[in-house]
Amino acid sequence: MNWTCANRNGCLRIIVLGYIIRMPLGGLVWHYLQYVLGLARLGHEVYYVEDSCLFEEDEYAWYYDPGANMMVADPTYGLKFAANTFARVGLGDRWAFYDACNCRWHGPAADRIIELSSSADILLNVSAANPLRHWLMNIPARVLIDTDPAFTQVRALTNSVRQNLASQHTAFFSFGENIASGRSTVPEDGRVWQATRQPVVLDAWTVTPGPDQGKFTTVMAWESYRKVEEYGGIRYGLKSDSFWPFVDLPARSGQSLELALFNSPAPRSLLAKRGWNVVDASDAIRDPWAYQSYIQESRGEFSVAKHGYVISHSGWFSERSACYMASGRPVLLQETGFSDWLPGGTGVVPFTTPEGALAGIEDIHSRYASHCRAARQIAEEYFDARKVLPSLIARAVRP
Q1: What dotted CATH number matches 202-382?
Q2: Which one, of 166, 170, 109, lies nearest residue 138 by Cα?
Q3: SS (H, E, C) 3-18
Q4: Which positions ≥6 away from 310 have C-beta within 8 Å?
Q5: pTM of the entire structure?
Q6: 138/147 Cα distance (integer angstroms)
Q7: Are both 13-199+385-396 and 202-382 of the same fold?
Q8: Labelling 78: which of 244, 248, 278, 350 has CA 20 to 30 A away?
Q9: 352, 324 Cβ separation under 8 angstroms
């Protein structure tokens, strides 16, 4: 595709910053890929750009190598992964990677990305996963998309480097949709957060019949961070904090529940003794299409949320769960306040207690076909990239 338009006939030049090359995992990649693919499908001139360091002050860059299952100093694996991924979705010439340690660019757009950035209309820094280098600072609309509510705000309040990164943006959006409505207790960091959610490119997600004897599954990290955040005397915990009240769910429900754990210090033996089918997530997340297959082979999703999302009533909803629903799979999810804006009961079943989770499992089994249909319908109504992204862009450029 030969792109020549910027600001013509509604076509915008948009730079999306993400975290694919440094962490080449199938589920995480979809999080960023659907922004790029969705914007391209809408007719925009979009480029994916990634930086080797999270902050300009970082002296070293590290990359996850799934083959070695460790962080390495060489981006080769991630660069090949990105090339294969973007080529497969028809965007093979639309990405570039900046190796800050060696002041070197990689990728098919490497030789022109600085020039393209100088005339870009919008920058989307998804998950605040990249620094804003000087060549990005002239983009008029620089959007920070917070996908980790409560944690993002606490870090900005307690870490001057994070605060500085946030201050370089011109608009602020959060998956914590209840922040904007005033229904959450996410700490106020002085910014006006607008609600947004994961865009899903629906035609990239095939709806297939759910397996009659399939498992409820999820892909998760037991502990996402090295330390738990605290602010104002409140502890914002991780999934490991949320999980324990539900640890006996397999035995109590008599159903097959699977945890695909990624590189996580979870108590696997204990979980297995309590009836969980605990598997390594490596196969499920080796690339975006293995991840899709894992979801399609599942009967539905059961998942807890980070404790910080729950206690702050943030309204956060998982990008992973949106993909389950787009595949026609119902989701049984710990309540974070998302029921304030997303209809639940069929297709999406929220729970707050073990008894509520048990009732949800039983209801999904008893009305499985209805739950599957409703899951896809909710994905179409609330997460369709053709709705989510135009709304985001319109509000991002609003004076």
Answers
A1: 3.40.50.2000
A2: 170
A3: CCCCCECCECEEEEEC
A4: 242, 334, 335, 336
A5: 0.95
A6: 24
A7: yes
A8: 278
A9: no
Q: Which residue has the tokens 């070197």?
A: 104
Q: Are 22 and 77 in contact (CB under 8 A)?
A: no
pLDDT per residue over 178-205, tens digit each? Answer: 999 999 999 999 999 999 999 999 999 9
Radius of gyration of the CA atoms of the chain, in A: 20
Ordered by start, the domain boundaries in the chain are: 13-199+385-396, 202-382
Strand partners, 179: none
The answer on pLDDT for 59 being more than 70 is: no
Q: Does domain 13-199+385-396 have CATH number 1.10.3470?
A: no
To the nearest 10 degrees (0 to 180), the angle between helices 385-396 and 26-41 is 70
Strands (E), 127-239: 141-146, 171-174, 194-195, 216-220, 229-231, 234-236
Residue type, 304: V
Helix 160-167 × helix 151-158 angle, to 10°? 110
